[in-house]
From TrEMBL:
Its main location: membrane. It holds the Pfam family MamF_MmsF. It is a multi-pass membrane protein. It comes from the Bacteria. This is DUF4870 domain-containing protein. It comes from Archangium gephyra. It is found in: Membrane. The chain crosses the membrane at residues 25-48, 69-90, 96-112. Keywords: Membrane, Transmembrane, Transmembrane helix. The lineage of its organism: Bacteria, Pseudomonadati, Myxococcota, Myxococcia, Myxococcales.
Length: 130
């Protein structure tokens, strides 16, 4: 990452290339809040702090995209499980627990990385919100 790009991610207030402590907390909150609020947690962070910090906005958008992707996968698996119930759809239902565990683990890990000041990218994510 070039210095120019890195500086753009820093605080508007201090002009520092590193996120402030407040930005790190809000970035972590964007990821971890999704455990309880799904897509609404990161969306709330975007609405509250997105205009004040590009870094927080990017963290929240990454979390929002991940939660939306996982929500879509869950809905598809539920619908497919219902439609295929007679033909082995139960297997799809059994995959929901590992998917939920993966979402929780990745969200917590992303929150930790954001709190460390790392602009975290989820390993699989459909980036609908840019």
């Amino acid at each position: 990452m070039s210095m120019e790009t890195h500086q753009q991610l820093g605080s508007f207030i201090t002009g520092s290339p590193e996120p402030t402590t407040d930005e790190k907390i809000w970035g972590a909150l964007a990821h971890v809040s999704a455990l309880v609020l799904s897509v609404f947690g990161p969306l709330l962070v975007i609405l509250l702090k997105g205009k004040q910090s590009i870094w927080v906005e990017r963290q929240a958008k990454e979390a929002l995209n991940f939660q939306a992707t996982m929500l879509a996968m869950t809905v598809v698996m539920l619908v497919a499980g219902l439609l295929l119930f007679c033909f082995g759809g139960v297997l799809l239902w059994k995959l929901l627990a590992p998917l939920g565990l993966a979402v929780a683990v990745l969200s917590i890990y992303a929150g930790i990385k954001a709190h460390e000041g790392v602009l975290y990218r989820y390993p699989f994510n459909v980036r609908l919100v840019k």
